[in-house]
Amino acid sequence: MTMSDNTPDAPKDEWDDLMGEIESEKSSQKRRAAAEAAADNILKSAGKADESAEGEIDTSEPDAGAAAIARIQELELELATLKDQALRAMADAENVKRRSQKEVAAARVFGIERFANDVLAVHDNLSRALLTLEGTDKSTLGDNAKNLVEGIELTEKDLMAVLARHGVTAVAGVGTKFDPNVHQAVANIPSDEDKGNVATVMQTGFKIGDRTLRAAMVAVSTGKPA
Question: What does the pLDDT look like over 32-59, one tens digit per residue?
Fold first, then answer.
């Protein structure tokens, strides 16, 4: 007996449709199985890639940290060097400023030194003119002589005031302790002054600022006469 003998009579078209549906279901199952297998392969590959990437990061992190520390140390060294250079430059600038200020002050004080030396000759002539009249009773002089003497005294006074305004001052004279920095001893004489003091001034000395412009020519006392 054949299958056709036991199969009920049915239209041929319905049988063909049923067989087609069975074949289509089998094809769908195969496609789903293939898709699932492909998905599993993709997931496995992705997992391996992640593990590989993690391994690479782990192995590279120590090197990256060391490089960062080395770079930080390099930058700190550069910063310290620049700071030191800046401090040195500031110190040099301050030194230059101080030297310039000192030189300007010295130029202001000592710039007239040569001129002052020349003017001292005028002062010496006036002083010598007055010295010739020392001990003279002015009341015995005529009006013209009195006016002349007063004019010379006034001129010397004005000259001393002008010199003083420009920092040129007379060295201390009679009665002061002899100072080799500002006095030039030309004689030792007995006098009423204490021993070692200036007894008399033969030529007035001058200072410009704290510098000796010209030493005073003096006689030094050897003490009171016996």
Answer: 666 667 666 666 665 555 555 455 444 4
